[in-house]
Design goal:
This protein is mainly alpha-helical. The chain has a single domain (28-104), classed as Monooxygenase, CATH 1.20.1280. The protein contains five helices and two strands; from the N terminus they run E-E-H-H-H-H-H. It has a two-stranded antiparallel ribbon with strand order 1-2. The relative contact order is 0.14. The mean pLDDT is 89.
Length: 107
C-alpha cells in the first residue's frame, strides 16, 4: 500500500515499479523525436532498429489488449507513436522531413 495526499492507495510495490518503468520507457523516445524535429537529421539512426521497435510495440499492444492490461496498452501505444514518428522521419526524403518538422514546430 502507498500513501498519497493522506489517503492509502491499494497498489503493490511491484505495480508501482511497473508504472514507473512504463513512464521511463515511454519518455525515453521523446528526446530523440524532439532532436529530429529540431535538427531535421536522421543519418545516424538505424532504420532496422526502429522497424523492430515499432513491430515490438505493436505486438505488446495486442498482448495488452488480449490480457486486458491497460497500462501496457497505453504505455506501448505512446512508444509506438513516438518510434513510428522517428522511423517515418528516418525514411522520408529530406524535403518531406523538413515539411513534417515545420508542421510540428513552425518557424
Amino acid at each position: 500500500m502507498l500513501k498519497c495526499q493522506g489517503k492509502t492507495v491499494e497498489m503493490s510495490y511491484a505495480t508501482f515499479i511497473g508504472y514507473v518503468a512504463a513512464a521511463f520507457s515511454t519518455a525515453s523516445f521523446a528526446p530523440q523525436a524532439w532532436k529530429i524535429i529540431r535538427a531535421r537529421e536522421t543519418k545516424d539512426i538505424s532504420a532496422g532498429m526502429y522497424i523492430l521497435s515499432v513491430s515490438g510495440f505493436a505486438m505488446w499492444i495486442v498482448f495488452g489488449f488480449l490480457m486486458r492490461q491497460w497500462p501496457l496498452v497505453v504505455s506501448n501505444s505512446i512508444c509506438l507513436f513516438l518510434s513510428a514518428f522517428i522511423l517515418l522521419m528516418k525514411l522520408l526524403p529530406r524535403a518531406d522531413k523538413e515539411a513534417v518538422a515545420k508542421l510540428v514546430v513552425p518557424g
